[in-house]
Specification:
The chain is an alpha+beta fold and 246 residues long. The chain is built from 4 helices and 15 strands. The strands form 4 sheets. A 5-stranded antiparallel beta sheet has the order 8-7-9-14-15.
Length: 246
């Protein structure tokens, strides 16, 4: 999983370098796939099933502005000055998965958008700081939600992080919203050796979403912008280990 995570981190580092006005999301996808396959790994997203049909057609998810997750790359989707783009990527190395995401500012943008990205990445790091042996899942979720809401934004309630290992999505589910008592997720104890993908998705407006006609792309229902950051981490008997960071 460390090797899978390193490959994912390398892809995202290259995406940071490439993310500028005039670049198409299809170009980003082609470069990402090349990096993954040259290292004897498999793009985890390409061909990922969706209710038994409409498999995901690309190696990255490229979600622009009000798109939250699962945006499909296209040569017709050209980045413009002032855009933001979430790039989510997964790789499988010798049967084990790595999964991470970043949101990039393209060119110059406004201070509120910058603050949205900072709040989202801060929420991720707040969650990671709580991902310690003998802590519980609720501590992680509460830290993510609290950080985002203190910054004046909302966390998405309909999509979430997840356990990860031999499969992309494993137990436990890791929501970014704790919810009212009686409707909260199971409060798993965190144990050394667990590997989870934390991925706060934070929106500037209402948390409600809808899915576009392509069956994949999730957008904010009110059209406000969204940011998304993710790391795959390992719980240890000390500091959590971030597997998707170079």
């Amino acid at each position: 999983m460390r090797q899978a995570g390193r490959i994912v981190a390398e892809v995202l580092a290259t995406m940071r370098e490439m993310g500028r006005p005039g670049v198409s999301t299809a170009e980003l996808d082609a470069v990402a796939e090349d990096i993954i396959t040259r290292q004897q790994a498999i793009p985890a997203f390409k061909g990922y099933p969706h209710n038994g049909q409409n498999d995901f057609p690309a190696s990255i998810c490229a979600s622009i502005n009000e798109e939250i997750v699962h945006g499909i790359p296209s040569p017709h989707r050209i980045l413009k000055d002032g855009d933001i783009i979430s790039i989510d990527v997964g790789a499988i190395y010798e049967g084990f998965h790595g999964d991470a995401a970043i949101t990039l500012l393209i060119g110059k943008t406004d201070k509120e958008t910058q603050r949205l990205l900072e709040a989202t990445e801060g929420a991720l790091m707040a969650g990671i700081a709580q991902a310690r042996e003998h802590n519980h899942l609720w501590n992680v979720i509460r830290a993510i939600q609290s950080h985002a809401e203190r910054s004046g934004f909302n966390v998405l309630r309909e999509y979430q992080g997840h356990g990860i290992g031999r499969h992309m999505h494993e137990k436990p589910d890791v929501p970014n919203f704790l919810g009212p008592r009686g409707r909260r997720p199971k409060n798993y104890p965190l144990e050394s050796g667990m590997t989870i993908a934390l991925e706060p998705m934070v929106v500037a407006g209402d948390w409600r979403t809808r899915v576009l006609d392509d069956g994949w792309t999730v957008v904010t229902a009110d059209g406000n912008r969204s940011a998304h950051f993710e790391h795959t981490i390992a719980i240890t008997n000390g500091e959590p280990e971030i597997l998707t960071r170079l």
